[in-house]
Amino acid sequence: MKRSLGVLVFAAFAMSAADKPDPAAAGMDAARLARIPKRMQEFVDAGKAAGIVTLVARHGRVASLDAVGFQELESRTPMKVDTIFRIASLTKPVTCAGMMILVDEGRVSVLDPVEKYIPEFKNQKVSACSPAEGCTSVSPKRPVNILDLMTHTSGLPGSAPAGSGPAAATLAEQAAAGGKLALLFEPGTAWNYSNIGYIALGRIIEVVSKKPFDEFMAEHVFGPLGMKDTMFFPPDDRRARIAAVYSDENGTLKRARQVETQTGPRIPAPQGGLFSTAPDLLRFNQMILNKGWLDGRRVLSAAASEMMGTSMTGGMKAGFAPGAGHGLGYEVIREARGTWRYNSVGTLVKGGAYRTYEFIDPAKDLIGIILLQRTNGGGDVADEINAFLAMAAAAIEKQ
């Protein structure tokens, strides 16, 4: 697949974990790409991560796909390129794609008020502090809309305060509880990362499609894209491939079993509940880069995929990396200050809580994915992520 600035000639794209990477076809330097797993192994040897999977693709071809370290330290199970990861907030762009499918079908508008689909969002109030601090709550100038949810500009808190209500048994109950919380600011005027907003998005998909959220996503996203290892609830035959999660405790990796053994109702989490692999995530991100196409099949309209990669947050502080604004699910590098990891302006980026990360750089026709499982240490600017992004772009040989 060849690309010139602003013009993309689409080719069929097929990817499996067994595909042999072809740096030359991707216009990349094989020797420089080979440095990536060596650098990742250094992080593993230093006890910073149990294991890491990295994938680089360009011009629709896989340039490198590597696994280093261990899927599980205790059993010394090697990390593999098709190991399954808890991708956490990398779920969010996927949820947005589900919503935009409904927009493509004319069944939803991004400017629809959330209360149109979730009645509990009616009569919300704005309160930047608690009544005990002498604050009064006022009605917002306009209701929260779907676009606010996708860009984290709704004013909703990040998560519900502990003890704020009974435990929810369904996605509908979770969304209803979120609608009863006070807003931190007027909708559309500031940015605050909100998992509650994405719970509401998932519920709206259920209401409009009349299907459970996870079933809709499997039917309209995972199935059409061939994401065979992407799901909210892995069956028993996938369990042996799931990477263990660790926390860095004073320089020692300790098993984070509280993450792995979460109990409670079986609720698909639109904000961060997906399990997936590097090859599957490549298929999703390649579809976005291809303006909605993959393997000769349209999943999203060009307009929807372009909107997902457009910063909607103006000059407000947004995102977790310097120079970023926020699109739909993805952060978007909007200024030169954000190119410090060799990302171009216009690059889409997204990180997850367990140090999973992906990027799409349209100007370079480059996609990168790095997956590890650690609960802490650096967030979206963790050392492993910073090194990988820079090294991936540095391996470009030919335009």
In short:
With 399 residues, the chain is of the alpha+beta class.
Give a description of the structure.
With 399 residues, the chain is an alpha+beta fold. The chain has a domain of 198 residues: Beta-lactamase (3-Layer(aba) Sandwich), CATH 3.40.710.10. 27% of the residues lie in helices and 16% in strands. It has ten helices and 16 strands. The strands form five sheets. An eight-stranded antiparallel sheet has the order 5-4-3-16-15-14-13-12, with helices on both faces. Helix 1 runs antiparallel to helix 10, helix 2 packs across helix 6 and helix 4 crosses helix 5. The longest helix has 16 residues. It is globular.
Strand count, sense and barrel status of the largest sheet are: 8 strands, antiparallel
Going by CATH, the homologous superfamily of the domain at 3-83 and 278-394 would be DD-peptidase/beta-lactamase superfamily
Question: Termini separation (Å)?
Answer: 12 Å
- Number of E strands: 16
Q: Numbering strands along the chain, what is their spatial order in the largest sheet?
A: 5-4-3-16-15-14-13-12
Structural class: alpha+beta
Tell me the β content: 15-25%
Order of helices and strands: EEHEEEEHHHHHEEHEHEEHEEEEEH
Shape by Cα distribution? globular
Q: Which runs of at least 5 residues are low in confidence (pLDDT < 50)?
A: 1-18
Assign the CATH architecture of the domain at 3-83 and 278-394. Answer: 3-Layer(aba) Sandwich
**CATH fold category name of the domain at 3-83 and 278-394:** Beta-lactamase
Rg, rounded, reads: 21 Å
CATH class of the domain at 3-83 and 278-394: Alpha Beta
Number of alpha- plus pi-helical segments: 10
Q: What value does the average pLDDT take?
A: 93
